[in-house]
Design a protein that fits this description.
With about 450 residues, the chain is α/β, with parallel strands linked by helices. It has 4 domains: about 120 residues, Rossmann fold; about 100 residues, Alpha-Beta Plaits (2-Layer Sandwich), CATH 3.30.70.1450; about 120 residues, 3-Layer(aba) Sandwich (Rossmann fold), CATH 3.40.50; about 90 residues, Alpha-Beta Plaits, CATH 3.30.70. The strands form 4 sheets. A 6-stranded parallel sheet has the order 3-2-1-4-5-6, sandwiched between helices. A 6-stranded parallel sheet has the order 14-13-12-15-16-17, sandwiched between helices. Strands 7-8-11-9-10 form a 5-stranded antiparallel sheet. α12 links the parallel β16 and β17. The longest helix has 15 residues.
Length: about 450
Amino acid sequence: MRILICGAGQVGYGIAERLSAEQNDVSVIDSSPELISNIQDRLDVRGYVGHGAHPDVLARAGAEQADMIIGVTLYDEVNMVACQVAHSLFNVPTKIARIRAQSYRQPHWQNLFSRENMPIDVIISPEIEVGDVIMRRIALPGAKDVVTFLDDEAAMVAIECDENCPVVDTPLSQLTELFPDLNAVVCGIYRDGQMIAPKSMDQILLGDLAYVIAARGQIRRTLSIFGKEKSEAGRILIAGGGNIGLYLAQQIEEKMPAARVRVIESNRETAIKMADELSRTVVLHGSALDEQLLSEAGAANSDLMVAITNDDQVNILSSVMARKLGCKSNLALLNNPGYHGFTKSLGIDDYINPRSITISRVLQHVRRGRILGVYSLQNGAAEIIEAEALDTSPLVGRPLRELDLPGGVRIGAIYHDGNVISPSGDSIIKSGDKVVIFALNDMVHEVEQMFRASLEFFG
């Protein structure tokens, strides 16, 4: 696939890194010579210095042959115009833009992005995406990660297997025997820096991060079985009142009416604006690194601190300070992947990686075949993929035990006639069924092939 990326910042770099590793033909445009030099030195991509929305720059970068353009510069308007120019002058088939300003997303302006006006096929709003991820974590406090699939009827939950986990050292096949009616499957395990697609005789070990796909009604029970039964946070402290903070506070007010929320915001104008737009949330103006202000905000009695300022170091330090004052748990937004490896030793319970969330959304539209959803795990070590099985798919019509699926691929759930089915050897996938699959990164292409109706796949 020929892909043109406008923007070589953290997100643009991450997308280019993943797509070039998968043998796509990738070109990157950025106005910064330093960023272009860096990306060319490190990745197998072509780099072009220039304005991402200018026709001559797009032409130089090969827009005429491009299958897709992805606008992820710092500026919404550049991303939007780049897609418009790519459509009008170069007839690029698929156009994706990152758009941060919520004004563009309001329901009564939704016609703006129609094909007749500004033809953008996919709009990525990082603030909303990140806010939704945080809301899912708040709703399921025992999970390290939560992503929904199959029209929200199933979810992938990441569960840390610590000394309180009663199923440590238990073979996966025995889990099925112990809980025969549990509609959940352990599809992946992250162990000692390696991602594994476990077989039924494999055991869960202490320190593992288990990736479990479960029907919606079974998620809390699954967490309980893994020793992660925790009550939903009632008192929440948020550091950072930008777009994500405002969206998150609005969502909590709407969906968790019993929750008590306080926000600390360093910019006075932003704090005033936020206070005007919220009804039950208390907004405090000041620094989240001010210990006295954290105390006044009720850190000592809070169940959860969510640190989502635009400064990773502030997020880390304010989370640690809140914990020291007595806050029960914390969740930090960390853009810099360099911090991810030692969050535990810093005193961070969990973190959100906004780059991986955006990359997952892009991958969903890069994947070939009937791919409906994609979520990237552990910086691309594996993916959870939702796809629709067609008549000619090699998965259709035979019991799973006869399919001889490649190693590194596990089927987590089958969605048939509105029901989520936990797969067994006797399960048969029918045409039109949706399937959730765990695939190690070197198996993703194989999964794409399964849903491209290639009859020779198992030949």
